[in-house]
């Protein structure tokens, strides 16, 4: 990686090393780090609120399964149904790549509903208020994984911090482009920092839906606007005024506004 004429020449291999026949990739490690970091953060939350450790262990399993399945099916149905409808046997072949963050978000919502129904017997929003804090951090790590994979690249630009994504699967990969993965990662880190502040320094955790609403507004507003700087992920998006990622972000932002406003109107709910 070198700097040439104010352009960052990005030619990083997505593989860290090989262990026997196993390829260890940055993306996989960053994805796993997001889950492990999330577990540690939630453990601190649960300890503070005197919540049973057994709940956390079960929550981890629900979220892990829901995230992977949701992200995969989101990619299949939102972006590549034309292909997978003809190759249904490849739908669950996650190792070949193809995960969608909006699908992951939907998967998490379903997983939390099941977790709340079967384990906590509390409102799913109670769980989401705590879960979204580490999810914002995990989202930042996943975007850094996308950077290491040279995927989800930005549009051509002349900004001084542009990247040449040499390994990207795009036309003219040597053209300077926005490092959109870094933009999103930074936005998600800011949302994470804000949520941590609200949880530890304010009474936001007792205002049911506040943390969840702030998360939805922050993450999906950032996603909506950064999409203008990205290359479209699928060919069918070329003639769209706003792409699929933006269309899917709008209802999440609207839901975030609803939960935030609602949290300011209802009494505090303590664990």
TrEMBL record:
<feature type="transmembrane region" description="Helical">
    <location>
        <begin position="241"/>
        <end position="261"/>
    </location>
</feature>
<keyword id="KW-0812">Transmembrane</keyword>
<dbReference type="GO" id="GO:0042158">
    <property type="term" value="P:lipoprotein biosynthetic process"/>
</dbReference>
<feature type="transmembrane region" description="Helical">
    <location>
        <begin position="24"/>
        <end position="42"/>
    </location>
</feature>
<keyword id="KW-0449">Lipoprotein</keyword>
<feature type="transmembrane region" description="Helical">
    <location>
        <begin position="209"/>
        <end position="229"/>
    </location>
</feature>
<keyword id="KW-0472">Membrane</keyword>
<feature type="transmembrane region" description="Helical">
    <location>
        <begin position="54"/>
        <end position="74"/>
    </location>
</feature>
<dbReference type="GO" id="GO:0005886">
    <property type="term" value="C:plasma membrane"/>
</dbReference>
<protein>
    <recommendedName>
        <fullName>Phosphatidylglycerol--prolipoprotein diacylglyceryl transferase</fullName>
        <ecNumber>2.5.1.145</ecNumber>
    </recommendedName>
</protein>
<comment type="similarity">
    <text>Belongs to the Lgt family.</text>
</comment>
<keyword id="KW-0808">Transferase</keyword>
<keyword id="KW-1133">Transmembrane helix</keyword>
<dbReference type="Pfam" id="PF01790">
    <property type="entry name" value="LGT"/>
</dbReference>
<feature type="transmembrane region" description="Helical">
    <location>
        <begin position="182"/>
        <end position="200"/>
    </location>
</feature>
<dbReference type="GO" id="GO:0008961">
    <property type="term" value="F:phosphatidylglycerol-prolipoprotein diacylglyceryl transferase activity"/>
</dbReference>
<feature type="binding site">
    <location>
        <position position="143"/>
    </location>
    <ligand>
        <name>a 1,2-diacyl-sn-glycero-3-phospho-(1'-sn-glycerol)</name>
    </ligand>
</feature>
<feature type="transmembrane region" description="Helical">
    <location>
        <begin position="127"/>
        <end position="145"/>
    </location>
</feature>
<comment type="function">
    <text>Catalyzes the transfer of the diacylglyceryl group from phosphatidylglycerol to the sulfhydryl group of the N-terminal cysteine of a prolipoprotein, the first step in the formation of mature lipoproteins.</text>
</comment>
<dbReference type="InterPro" id="IPR001640">
    <property type="entry name" value="Lgt"/>
</dbReference>
<comment type="pathway">
    <text>Protein modification; lipoprotein biosynthesis (diacylglyceryl transfer).</text>
</comment>
<keyword id="KW-1003">Cell membrane</keyword>
<feature type="transmembrane region" description="Helical">
    <location>
        <begin position="94"/>
        <end position="115"/>
    </location>
</feature>
């Amino acid at each position: 990686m070198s700097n040439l004429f104010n352009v960052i020449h990005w030619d990083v291999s997505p593989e860290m090393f090989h262990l026997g026949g196993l390829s260890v990739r940055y993306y996989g490690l960053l994805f796993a780090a997001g889950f492990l970091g999330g577990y540690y953060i939630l453990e601190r939350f649960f300890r503070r609120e005197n919540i049973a450790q057994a709940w956390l262990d079960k929550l981890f399993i629900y979220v892990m399964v829901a995230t992977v399945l949701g992200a995969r099916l989101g990619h299949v149905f939102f972006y590549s149904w034309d292909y997978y409808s003809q190759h249904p046997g490849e739908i669950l072949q996650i190792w070949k790549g193809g995960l969608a963050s909006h699908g992951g978000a939907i998967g998490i919502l379903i997983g939390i509903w099941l977790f709340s129904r079967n384990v906590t017997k509390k409102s799913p929003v109670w769980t989401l208020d705590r879960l979204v804090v580490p999810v914002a951090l995990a989202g930042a790590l996943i975007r850094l994984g996308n950077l290491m994979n040279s995927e989800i690249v930005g549009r051509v630009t002349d900004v001084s911090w542009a990247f040449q994504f040499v390994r990207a699967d795009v036309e003219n990969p040597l053209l300077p482009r926005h490092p959109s993965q870094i933009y999103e990662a930074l936005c998600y880190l800011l949302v994470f920092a804000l949520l941590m502040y609200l949880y530890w320094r304010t009474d936001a955790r007792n205002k049911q839906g506040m943390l969840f609403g702030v998360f939805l507004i922050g993450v999906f507003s950032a996603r909506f606007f950064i999409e203008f700087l990205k290359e479209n992920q699928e060919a069918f998006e070329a003639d769209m005024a706003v792409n699929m990622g933006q269309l899917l972000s709008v209802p999440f932002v609207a839901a975030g506004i609803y939960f935030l406003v609602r949290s300011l109107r209802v009494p505090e709910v303590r664990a």
